[in-house]
């Protein structure tokens, strides 16, 4: 059967990765969380005190970063230079730094190159902010997910609480809105809905309902 690439973009905490993972599983495709790559770079920058304003230091750091995904007991895990960073990259200290890091063109160029490589054979579901516009402009299916900001903050809060985080609802909501603002207004590949994307507002949809809708869209293109 023909394999396609599926791009899922949208604002922070719209459930992009939940949908992308479920689609990849049903279709037996590879799932790529592009946000995890920007988060891993951010963790490296924090741990190595890389000055975001220093072009040479940023380039040098990017040369030293190796990001991979491997399947662990709890699902796909992100590895930074051989070490699993899956939970660390979800912490608030990374969330509050990731958008400024992801706005740096050098960082974007390095990540986009790797992401495009992963999609060369097709059969990839990738979620992020610029997948349908920049990474896979030729993706056969592009979905732009949206959801009400209060609902997004509530979902993120429940998710982080379940992982033992003490972040407050207010803190989470303001981080989401701030990231959306930076991501939508940066100069290099801002978050935009691709002209040929299908918009799904999942505020009132169940995960099953959303998955069914998305799979029907995929099947119509395979
Ligand atoms: O998807 P997630 O919320 O984990 O992404 C974290 C951050 O990474 C986003 O807020 C955005 O700044 C950046 N990002 C990006 N381009 C992507 C994916 C994520 O700029 N394709």
Automatic annotation (TrEMBL):
Question: What gene name does this entry carry?
Answer: cmk
Q: What Pfam families does the annotation carry? A: Cytidylate_kin (PF02224)
Q: Which family does it belong to?
A: Belongs to the cytidylate kinase family. Type 1 subfamily.
Q: Which InterPro entries match?
A: Cytidylate_kin, Cytidylate_kinase_dom, P-loop_NTPase
Query: Which principal EC class is assigned to this enzyme?
Result: transferase
Catalytic activity from the UniProt record: CMP + ATP = CDP + ADP; dCMP + ATP = dCDP + ADP
Entry keyword Kinase: yes
Q: Does the keyword Cell membrane apply?
A: no
Q: What GO terms fall under cellular component here?
A: cytosol
Q: In the Enzyme Commission scheme, what number(s) does this protein have?
A: 2.7.4.25
Q: Which UniProt keywords apply?
A: ATP-binding, Cytoplasm, Kinase, Nucleotide-binding, Transferase
- Species of origin reads Flavilitoribacter nigricans (strain ATCC 23147 / DSM 23189 / NBRC 102662 / NCIMB 1420 / SS-2) (Lewinella nigricans)
Which NCBIfam families would you find in this protein's record? cmk
From the UniProt record, give one GO term of the biological process aspect. Answer: pyrimidine nucleotide metabolic process
Q: Where in the cell is it found?
A: Cytoplasm
Q: What PANTHER family has UniProt attached to this entry?
A: CYTIDYLATE KINASE, CYTIDYLATE KINASE/PANTOATE-BETA-ALANINE LIGASE
Name this polypeptide is given: Cytidylate kinase
Q: Which GO terms describe its molecular function?
A: ATP binding; CMP kinase activity; dCMP kinase activity
Which positions are annotated as binding ATP? 10-18
Q: Where is the Cytidylate kinase domain?
A: 6-216
């Amino acid at each position: 059967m023909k394999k396609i690439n599926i791009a899922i973009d949208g604002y922070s905490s719209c459930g992009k990765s939940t949908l992308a993972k479920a689609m990849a599983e049903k279709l037996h495709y590879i799932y790529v969380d592009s946000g995890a790559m920007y988060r891993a770079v951010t963790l490296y920058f924090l741990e190595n005190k890389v000055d975001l304003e220093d072009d040479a230091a940023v380039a040098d750091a990017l040369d030293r970063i190796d990001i991979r995904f491997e399947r662990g007991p709890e699902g796909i895990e992100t590895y930074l230079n051989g070490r699993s960073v899956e939970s660390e990259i979800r912490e608030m200290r990374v969330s509050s730094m990731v958008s400024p890091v992801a706005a740096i063109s050098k960082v974007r160029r390095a990540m986009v190159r790797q992401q495009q490589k992963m999609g060369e054979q097709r059969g990839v579901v990738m979620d992020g902010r610029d997948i349908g516009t920049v990474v896979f402009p030729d993706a056969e299916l592009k979905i732009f997910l949206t959801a009400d900001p209060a609902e997004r903050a509530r979902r993120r809060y429940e998710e982080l609480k379940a992982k033992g985080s003490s972040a407050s609802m207010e803190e989470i909501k303001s981080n989401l809105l701030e990231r959306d603002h930076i991501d939508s207004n940066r100069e290099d590949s801002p978050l935009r809905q691709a002209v040929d994307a299908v918009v799904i507002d999942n505020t009132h949809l169940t995960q099953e309902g959303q998955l069914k809708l998305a799979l029907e869209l995929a099947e119509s293109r395979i």
